[in-house]
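Quick illustration, no need to memorize.
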Amino acid sequence: MSDKAYGGTTPQTDKDRILVVYNICGIKRDNTYQYPIFLHSIMNQKFDGEVVVAVSACCPREQTIPYLKDEFPNYHYNVIKEPYPVNVTFNKTVLDCVERFGEFDGYFYHACDVTINADNVYQELFDCLKSNDSLGL
């Protein structure tokens, strides 16, 4: 995996582009040091195109974002300081990323406590989306 593929710095017009929104929340507990376990499973995904990863952080703890930026410097970070429901923070992060990086061909929500054990999940989800017009991701 190249940094460019997961950094989202340069839109590619000839390849499919997906946005993966990794949702975290620091309201009830501090999971700062558990997040990298799950974020690494995102990094290990194989996708024939560009993957932009955005960390959507609702009320993160003081050390969370600096720690994650040190571990994952090429990810986009969207900090939401007010306590909103996950659907609101997800939508806000998607809007911010579209403004910054342009439209994507797919938008994926990734909960903070989910590890992906296979390396082709995003590709299979995206292929399913492309092959069936009645689906939306």
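The longest strand covers residues 16-25.
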